Every structure is written in C-alpha cells, then in structure tokens.
C-alpha cells in the first residue's frame, strides 16, 4: 500500500530543516514512554488524584509519574490543584486548554497505530 502526498510547494533544504526542528521540539515535550499516556488519561478523566492516575497507567512508578507530571506542568499541559482547606490535603491534576490542543494529534496517532497494527498482522498472515 503506497501513499502519495500532494505537496503544495517544493521541499527545500530550509523547509525540511524547519520541519525536522519543529518535530524534534514536539517530541522533546511530549515524547517518551509516559507523557502522552498521562495526557490522555487526564483529558479523559477531568481531574484526577495522583494514586488514581498511577492506577490508570499500568507500569509507571510513583517517582517516574511525579517527574513526568512536573515536566508536563512546566510545559503547560497539566495543572496541579491543591485543596489545602481539606484534611488531609488533596492534590488533583487536570489537563489544561493547551493540553487539549493535542487532541487531533492524539486521534491521528491512534488511527495510525490501528492501521499499522492491521498492516503488520496482514503482512504476518501473508508471509506464512
């Protein structure tokens, strides 16, 4: 299955470099094993406490989750809300409006992942 892309303008070395730089920046911020998983769970949950978030993301340690949440907060994807008026103090995490700008990217990645899995299964079946 071959896909062709109709380009509106020819790709120059400068444009290629700009695209690579932009993708590199995006991957730096949301890349890795856990960040997109955290963003997706937060978007689907609304607000969620740390332990519940950890239970929803199988395999992530508390230390890694804490570090990833700090990174996501620094980059504007997550907001940490402390309810100090309660005893014990309750801390919740919510996705920001900026985080929701990734919705189309997440949907596109999900669709591509499903297509890729089908292709791999089909190729594995055909090679038998």
Automatic annotation (TrEMBL):
Residues 16-121 form the HTH hxlR-type domain. InterPro entries: HTH_HxlR, WH-like_DNA-bd_sf, WH_DNA-bd_sf. Signal peptide: none annotated. The keyword Transport does not apply. SUPFAM superfamilies: Winged helix' DNA-binding domain (SSF46785). Transmembrane segments: none annotated. Keywords: DNA-binding, Transcription, Transcription regulation. GO terms for molecular function: DNA binding. It comes from the Bacteria. This is Transcriptional regulator. It comes from Sphingobacterium puteale.
């Amino acid at each position: 299955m071959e896909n062709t892309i109709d380009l509106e303008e020819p790709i120059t070395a400068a444009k290629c470099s700009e695209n690579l730089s932009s993708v590199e920046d995006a991957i730096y911020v949301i890349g890795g094993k856990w960040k997109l998983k955290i963003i997706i769970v937060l978007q689907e949950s609304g607000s969620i406490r740390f332990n519940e978030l950890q239970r929803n993301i199988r395999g992530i340690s508390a230390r890694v989750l804490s570090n990833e949440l700090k990174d996501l907060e620094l980059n504007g994807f997550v907001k940490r809300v402390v309810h100090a008026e309660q005893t014990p103090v309750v801390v919740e995490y919510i996705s920001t409006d900026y985080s929701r700008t990734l919705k189309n990217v997440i949907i596109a990645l999900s669709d591509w992942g499903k297509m890729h899995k089908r292709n791999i299964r089909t190729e594995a079946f055909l090679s038998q």
